[in-house]
Amino acid sequence: MAKKVYTVSKKKTDKGIGEMIKLGLSLVCYAVVSCTVLAIVNNFTAPVIKENQIRKANIAMAAVFPSADNFTPIENFSPVTSTATMAVTDGYFAKKEGKIIGAVVQVEGPTYDKSKIIVGLDIGGSVTGVQILEISDSPGFGLKANDPSFFLKNGKTFTGQFEGKDASNGFKNGNNFDSISGATITSHGLGNMISEATSVLSLEIEKAVAK
Q1: Tell me, what DSSP letter sits at residue 82?
Q2: pLDDT means per 10 residues in the chain (211 residues)?
């Protein structure tokens, strides 16, 4: 019995290769057009996003240091933190009529989960204000730290109790600030972050004044 011989049509093979090339070119064109559109959109939106970030930063700094009329970035700001779990960034000098009257800084670190705050310190070493920018702790407990309607037994909000306090010795839960009942870990974490912030700010202010 004769064996059947199967052959592939050269015409069909050429057509298959042609379709693959056509598909590849279509994908390349799509990628080029997409990248071009994204570049154009980014060119228009990037300045707006940056402007909004600056505006939000100024609002936050003004909230923790209301007596300042201007904020300027601290040059060569690269503080060494006491622990690897915290990040101290975005340091600014607070000025009034061109004179340095203190500074503000942003700190991110662990609480029950994690938080990001901004802290102000005046030239005399007293806290001018604390504001929580982000917190992802437990609802009903840790989140009370950022609730303006929640008051401690001392009649103040959690962050409000730090305003005007001497920061030279740092802040210890139950010693020079009150914790939130049921949220001791959050309270302790925020206290550590504020201590870290004021320690860094004290050094920056001291260096600036000494110049």
Answers
A1: S
A2: 52 64 73 69 59 71 95 93 92 96 97 97 97 93 94 95 96 93 95 97 93 77
